[in-house]
Write a structure and sequence with these properties.
mainly alpha; 116 residues
Length: 116
């Protein structure tokens, strides 16, 4: 048995396709930044639609390039329970810290302000 057989790898980089992996990663990074920027800063529906199209294209390219970043599995009840528990805990922590420290003046909404 040769040493090459012991360390054999089936990943794209092992087959000298590292240039393709690099360019695929750069392309996905650019699309991801564009998606984040357009959806996060959407000033109208056209910009939001562009962001959603970029997001769909991003998901498609991730599956086409066979990057195993996202696994599509059926949602189970325990996943919903974990999400609900995490939400309740984070809200409880947030409200506790807000009660102890208080809110900065720029974070207080107008309906919470009581003028005396």
């Amino acid at each position: 048995m040769s040493i090459k057989k012991i360390f054999e790898d089936n990943e794209p980089i092992a087959h000298n396709k590292y240039k393709y992996v690099l360019w695929e990663s750069i392309l996905l990074s650019i699309i991801c930044m564009g998606t984040y920027t357009t959806i996060g800063l959407a000033s109208n529906l056209v910009v939001l639609a562009i962001g959603l199209i970029l997001f769909i294209m991003l998901i498609y390219l991730i599956s086409k390039f066979q990057f195993k970043l996202i696994q599509f599995k059926p949602l189970e009840k325990k996943h919903l329970l974990y999400g609900l528990i995490a939400t309740i805990l984070s809200l409880a922590i947030y409200w506790t810290i807000s009660a102890i420290i208080g809110q900065p003046s720029n974070q207080v909404t107008k309906w919470m302000c009581i003028k005396i």
